[in-house]
Amino acid sequence: MPSLYIYNTIFIFMFQNTTKYFHTIKIIKIMKSALKYLTGIAGPSGFGSKSTALQVTHNCSCPTILTAIVTGGTSGIGAETARVLAKRGVRVVIPARNLKKAAEVKEIILKETPEAQIIIMEIDLSSMASVARFCSQFLSLDLPLNILINNAGVFSQKLEFSEDKIEITLATNYIGHYLLTELLLEKMVETATQTGIEGRIINVSSLTHTWVQRDHFSLSNFIHPHNYSGTRAYAQSKLANILHAKEIARQLKEGNARVTINAVHPGIVKTGIIRAHKGFITDSLYFLASKLLKSTSQGAATTCYVALSPKTQGISGSYFADCNETCCSSLASDASHALRLWKQTRALIRRRLHHPAL
């Protein structure tokens, strides 16, 4: 009996100290990551949190004119992404709900890069019919499609629904981009086959995807939430963006298609989404944390890096932050969840849109 007592005591001591050890290691890793972020120390790619979109694409030469679609290109990191891609010789299509704002962005880009090719088209990502209409109109232009950047995002503090009766954040951030990708994927594969140039899809996600708990992840609950939280809805949509990238990457690899898809976290940037959190406390916090926030150009860097860099050639199904591959949450890496969500979303769109191609 005494020996059993001693054994248990030793086991408990070892377990407690091992737990403390791994907890300490975790804290050290977090501190190292924080230090790396704050100082802008470059990762394996040669870039870090302080790198700008222009810097990370400086040596990205395009052998021919590429065509890119950039959603959310009328403001914030979307507009900066469009500007930098145009500066690097990419023909940029900006689908927008607000055509006036899109025209203003086009004017700004042309002032800096007079030879830029900017095409403005109408879309409402929260509307399945509008997304389908945009895709039909784009395909009728008979242009190649090399790059698709699913960047647009909304944050709604109150519960709102799209015309398809889906919660507006999910409808815009995830389902709209899901449908956009599905309807344009064949064109991207065709372009890559004909040109020999790898096609690239980028889903702009967020670190907030890590806030979603596995037990609470359900598409039906997202569509019609009972206890609505704007922050939770946004985080769920960003998790869905990563899972979407994971599943499409699997399908593309299975089909030997020369098209990649990855998800990116742009960092914390004071964009329109951040400004949706209005109030004294939020403004005060962001004033105090101003040194932690990225500029718009820094926020667009990872997207532009993944879209154009030769270093990302052949990489698919990955998650990038600060222009380097990194880990996403275990839920976001779950292949079975990714496939289930893809099938559920496909079924939902079929029911609402009655689209034979899906």
TrEMBL record:
Q: Which InterPro entries match?
A: NAD(P)-bd_dom_sf, SDR_fam, TIC32
Superkingdom of this entry's organism?
Eukaryota
SUPFAM superfamilies from the UniProt entry: NAD(P)-binding Rossmann-fold domains
Q: Could you say which protein family the record assigns here?
A: Belongs to the short-chain dehydrogenases/reductases (SDR) family.
**UniProt name for this protein:** Short-chain dehydrogenase TIC 32, chloroplastic
| Organism, as annotated | Saponaria officinalis (Common soapwort)
Q: What is the lineage of its organism?
A: Eukaryota, Viridiplantae, Streptophyta, Embryophyta, Tracheophyta
